[in-house]
Amino acid sequence: MPVQTIASTASVELGPAAALSCRECGERFDLGPIFACTSCFGPLEIAYELPQGDPEELRRRIEAGPESIWRYAPLLPVPADVAGKPNLNPGFTKLVKADNLARELGVTGELFVKDDSGNPTHSFKDRVVAIAVEAARAFGFTTLSCSSTGNLAGAVGAAAARAGLRSCVFIPHDLEQGKVVMAAVYGGELVGIEGNYDAVNRFCSELIGDPLGEGWGFVNVNLRPYYAEGSKTLAYEICEQLGWRLPDQIVIPIASGSQLTKIDKGLQELIALGLVEDRPYKIFGAQAEGCSPVSAAFKAGHDVVRPVKPDTIAKSLAIGNPADGPYVLDIARRTGGAVEDVTDEQIVDAIKLLARTEGIFAETAGGVTVGVTRKLIEAGVLDPSLTTVVLNTGDGLKTLDAVAPTTGPTATIRPSLDAFRDAGLAL
Ligand SMILES: *Cc1c(COP(=O)(O)O)cnc(C)c1O
Ligand SMILES: [Zn+2]
């Protein structure tokens, strides 16, 4: 595995982050821009020295913090003064009590939508990128980069612009126009690769190992252990917004599976810190049928995930070889949850259902979670009498193509009262 060290990492100041540790063999490494264990090639993650002491005091400190992910800085691999640096201050998005949707789905308990379309570049990716930017600064990287299914490219472009870093991001050449424009508008380099996401990702891994990639921080490759921790903030926010309470069930989309695994890590930390009561919760993973390797493995009872070639309108989730797939399977099974998938048609229906009931226009990934929620309730897998949180991780304006063919004006008329009457629109 290539190991890059730009700055000396001995003096790296990233708050409570103490070391990197291997998720497979537990070996520990100094904080640095590395992502795989040198002994067993397992993925590395951050090991913390989390705050000790009175949970009440920590809760008060968090509540007094900024209305962004930085209120949780004591639990993240970032310097203590992070909120004062130029960044996009993502997070603290709305947790919407979705009573209308609950009625439609036959949910008798409380149903919430965690709406991450409210982030600065309109997807959950701003959370993970904000953490990666701090790591890039700490390690002295001058170019911020990524392989992206779309949303990440925009989030990296915007965050780099604000932080004063150069950016050069890589996307599959055939993405939705909304995502291409959003990735390009912040002024960094945007490179379309002739191939799917998995090909883009392989290319980036090669570039990291080559002198051509020197000084480059790839947020989801060599900075991945830091980047991934940003997803914990979804768990923190959901619990805080529920009044420091765990939900009973959470439905989370799966691309690489990173977000799902780190939401579980975040919930476990809140329990360990005494910030929420230790009660069981179930985690459900959601995929599109056209890219459902984790769902297929879950249903077959397998521990390994067999890669697939994606073919779905849910392009932000179209990772055919999900790095965290096996960990997702562990979590779904350990918590008593499940992994399920829905067709493209069900995704479109679910986008419209959420829009019609709650006034939330989700991107295709939100259609996947709402669609899977509906399917799991109908199958009796998800308990409709409990407190359930469904994630919407992106904005429908970025995936207009998904709904445009089946959405449009109710009528087109001449500007006259007669024409209006004839159209049958009056009460
Ligand atoms: C990236 C992304 C996800 C989750 O990705 P993971 O790789 O599983 O962490 C979910 N929704 C949207 C809209 C995304 O862009
Ligand atoms: Zn290892």
Automatic annotation (TrEMBL):
Record domain Tryptophan synthase beta chain-like PALP: where: 90-394
Listed GO MF terms: L-serine ammonia-lyase activity; threonine deaminase activity; threonine synthase activity
Segments crossing the lipid bilayer: none
Keyword terms, alphabetized: Lyase, Pyridoxal phosphate
Cofactor(s) needed by this chain: pyridoxal 5'-phosphate
EC number: 4.2.3.1
Gene3D superfamilies xrefs: 3.40.50.1100
InterPro entries: Ser/Thr_Dehydratase, Thr_synthase-like, TrpB-like_PALP, TrpB-like_PALP_sf
GO biological process: isoleucine biosynthetic process; L-serine catabolic process; L-threonine catabolic process; threonine biosynthetic process
Modified residues (N6-(pyridoxal phosphate)lysine): K125
Domain of life: Bacteria
Family named by the database record: Belongs to the threonine synthase family.
Protein name as catalogued: Threonine synthase
Organism per entry: Streptomyces jumonjinensis
